[in-house]
Write a structure and sequence with these properties.
This protein is mainly α and about 160 residues long. Helix content is about 85%, strand content about 0%.
Length: about 160
């Protein structure tokens, strides 16, 4: 393998680390830390918007590096490869999960998250809070599954 392959894998791993780490940081560190803070809504909104900005950059980076990684490994982009090999089926599963992750993330950020933050400024909306919480959990679960599939793919499973 050439140096560019290792750089691409390294960037892909850094991206996954940033994405999953940020998703764990928000509910495990930030939210408990600001639970009783009178500026809770403002802190959550600013942090969420900042993470969203960098998060989508990281997702784009991971899409590019994921495709580069397969190219560097000599993956043949053919119907036969994706249908008849275990590796190909894992790649298809990871792509489906990635598309799902982006769709749910957009829903979380642009619909549920935004409406929830607006409602937090006015009053607590239990339904929106539940939707925002569960879309976040689903995103984390999909991300962890994708990381596991990445390990399988990198180890030749």
């Amino acid at each position: 393998m050439n140096t560019w392959y290792y750089v691409s894998v390294w960037l892909h791993i850094l991206g996954a680390t940033f994405w999953i780490g940020g998703m764990l940081f928000l509910p495990l560190v930030l939210l408990p830390s600001i639970k009783n803070n009178y500026e809770r809504t403002q802190l959550l909104m600013v942090t969420g918007l900042k993470f969203r900005f960098y998060g989508y950059i990281v997702l784009a980076l991971m899409l590019v590096t994921g495709m580069l990684n397969m190219g560097f490994k000599g993956v043949q982009f053919s119907w036969r490869f994706f249908n008849e090999t275990h590796y190909g089926r894992l790649v298809i599963l990871k792509v489906i999960l990635f598309v799902s992750l982006v769709a749910i993330s957009l829903t979380h950020d642009l619909l549920a998250g935004r409406k929830f933050l607006e409602q937090m400024q006015k009053e607590q909306s239990a339904k929106l809070k539940l939707i925002a919480r569960w879309t976040g959990r689903i995103l984390l679960l999909i991300s962890l599954i994708m990381a596991y599939i990445g390990v399988l793919l990198s180890r030749g499973a």
